[in-house]
Amino acid sequence: MRSPVLAAAKRPVALVGALAATFTLAACGSDSGGAENAGPPQPGGTLRYGLSTAPTCSDPAQSSTNQTIYVTRQVVDSLVDQDPETGVIKPWLADSWFVSADAKSFTFHLKDGITFSDGTPLTADSVRKNFDATLALGGAKAPLAVSYLAGYTGSTVVDPRTVRVDFGVPNAQFLQATSTSQLGIQADSTVTKSADDRCLGTNIGSGPFTYADWKQNASVTLAKRTGYNWGSAVFAKQGDAYLDKIAFTVVPESGVRTGSLGSGQLDAISDALPQDVAQIEGSGGRVQFTSNPGIPFGLQPNVNRGPLRDPAVRAAFLPAINRQELVDTVLGPQFKTATSPLASRTPGFVDLSSRVKFDQNAAKQILDKAGWTPGADGIRVKDGQRLSASVMYASVFAGNQAILELTQQQLRAVGIELKLDPVSVPDWTTRQNAKDFEFNYYNSTRADGDILRTTFGVDQRNLNGRGPNEKLDALLTAELSTTDSAERARIIGEAQGAVLDEGLWIPTVELSQAIGIAKSTSDVKFEASARLQFHDTWLRR
């Protein structure tokens, strides 16, 4: 007798409960102006892309910054994809799947004939080896990927094209997690390497592009994979990509990136700043925007450091910051203020603007009541301790320093001293893992509300360094246990409020991707997590 799981895996798409729709994503993407090229797409050519910062590692499993994922997303395929407009899970490497009612078992049936770029077949055993190897990398090397595998007990090869992934506890977020590049599938020759060796540009995937050249901190070249016949159902076309190559170059200076786009030296660029838009449009180009889902930019306090141990201090930061001024002064109208620990495009987002509201008097009253009184220089003091904290940040987004400089001024007006501590991306990663900071400023992107658990869970990254909290811990566990989308959204909504209650995140602004695109470039697309997907991109030559 055929088992119920195998029978379900043969259906077009088999899901339990309302996971089929997950949640709905808001429509993503808008242009500053200019028009897409008319006419049929043209194959061929090399897309020259200017990155704002250097990719940190060529391994998708270890990738976390946007600029890195722009590269790694192109070389690896995922078991499923997520429609960026609707949030619905769509086929990619797997043509069908089944989720058990208790969200502990996930069965995937793979398409026939998939191969890695080294010619070896992609099988159910490849999936097993990838998940086992990802877990072995550990949370320090692959924090996002490992967090998605919470409770993983192993994978079973049912047949060469069917794999069952099992968890010891419910893990309702896992289906969406398999759409991310961090859980993309790589060849045996890659996953058997050490974590460091997986960062050198030799990764073998099944994606529409392959690594042709990797020069750390300088450039990456990708080449088209011919015979690519298993693309995502989200792609506009099936078969090979249009582009022959993608040449990524690291160009840290915004003005140089913009000038190179206008002069025809680059075809697309990252992090087009508001002041660059007119110049880009003047050369016939456009700026393409989309808001990132996930955790918006914000200050994450280490609750074991200095004045940040005081819950009242953490609470005072919320009304002390004028988020609209940050957007208007530094960023421009394509960006949004952050009103929750989740960004507004994230499934399960709840608008908490009534709590995340600028009110300097309220901030002063909170501090007054807690015994923090203004000192001679205006900075508050309590029991001989100044109300001073440093914020660690890296320039992973071009606007970070200007945002923090303005935030620094706003906080000083209520008697809080914020010291800026800029660091390199490698140092930032090292210090995050060691919790060696007072405030950490960053964002984290994912199109699923489970990112609250992976960010704030006491048994997950927990960069706050917090101890157990009965209410928050129960909510973060409960969202993994239900496959009912409405109930899961309710739980995630409550969890957002609980994060604010504990002062674990002080939101500032939502990140938007702003991609400058030359008039000769068409169909540059964002996937559900606001990262670029170049399979459908083409050049007018």
Write the layout of secondary structure elements.
Layout: H1 4-9, E1 30-31, E2 46-51, H2 66-72, E3 80-82, E4 89-91, E5 94-99, E6 105-110, H3 124-137, H4 143-148, E7 152-159, E8 162-167, H5 174-177, H6 188-191, E9 209-215, E10 219-224, E11 245-250, H7 254-262, E12 268-269, H8 277-282, E13 286-291, E14 294-301, H9 311-320, H10 323-331, H11 360-369, E15 373-374, E16 380-382, E17 385-386, E18 388-393, H12 400-412, E19 417-422, H13 425-433, E20 439-445, H14 451-456, H15 470-478, H16 485-501, E21 506-507, E22 512-517, E23 521-522, E24 525-526, E25 532-533, E26 538-539
Parallel strand pairs: 2-11, 2-12, 18-19, 18-20
Antiparallel strand pairs: 1-13, 3-4, 5-6, 6-8, 7-8, 9-10, 10-11, 12-22, 13-22, 14-20, 14-21, 15-16, 16-17, 23-26, 24-25
Helix pairs in contact: 9-11, 15-16
